[in-house]
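Exercise (ungraded).
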Amino acid sequence: MYYLYIITAFALLLSFIADRRKTLMAIKITVKKFVNILPAFLAMLILVSVVLFIVPDKTISNYLGGNNKFTGVIFASFFGSITLLPGFIAFPLCGILLEKGVTYMVLSAFTTTLMMVGVLTYPIEKEYFGMKVTVIRNVISFFIAIVVALITGIFFGEIF
Amino acid sequence: MKRNNIIIKIVSISAYLAFILFSFITGFNPGKQMAANFITFSVYMLKILPCAFVLIGLFEVWGKKETIEKHFGQESGIKGHIWAVLLAGTTVGGLYVAFPVAYSLYGKGAKLSVIFTYIGASAICRIPMTIFEASFMGIKFSAIRLLVSLPLVIISSILLGDYLEKRGYKIMAGK
């Protein structure tokens, strides 16, 4: 994470040396853009806090670990779509589930939808790209995730 | 319509805050847990967002329209998608960072399909995340995921982008 701060500070400094006025303009744009999208972020954070209360890690683990692998994929892609977990929580969780015997296919469905499908980021995506594009993109992403999961299952010998 | 939306937002946010406050006063656990979730995620995002938006601001000022058009615009062809994937690899955070970046790129003349590739790719192939993933799931798992999803993302982005552009679709924030 620190490299992000270093790069940002360095870029700001360079910009400031090159042109003070432009840099101030950039900061103004930053603040304006940030403030404009803040309500959407707030909406997302509220949704996240509620959904993660209703569907905590434990519930997800229980459903993913079920016996039937195809219902597992369906549950996994459902939970992956409606939740939002940062990588540092999601992948260790998947690592544990893997050791418990959950298939690669199910975990692939979970992580890929988690990354690509954003029901909770909907307020933000809609704000930038409109409802129609947001819905289409998420539906396409969902199907891509299913394809990825199935192919993962084939390569790990979990389907045949 | 717009005004109504704002009122709905204010009302629901206040209701949420009131609920959290009420939970703390009465010791209602679900409410407390939601508040904890809210704070965890706010802190996590506040670590990334200010930097991301400063970089976007600098990009808005310094990024040359001609350069973006050349590499990400109508004439960029498949190269535009490759650039988008490379840029996505260095993106931090997740979709919520990719959206404003994509929007700025679009404003500077990037074409729709390239924007969609960028968004999709920044969901699935951020380099630090992929390394982290591979360390838990194994390289084979990550490799399959990338090799299958990336082409699908690019193909679907081209189809969707071209379809929308043919119909004269323009992205306008908030619509």
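Further reading is listed at the end of the chapter. For now, observe: DSSP finds eight helices and no strands in chain B. Helices of chain B lie at 2-26, 29-62, 65-72, 77-89, 95-107, 112-124, 127-137, 139-166.
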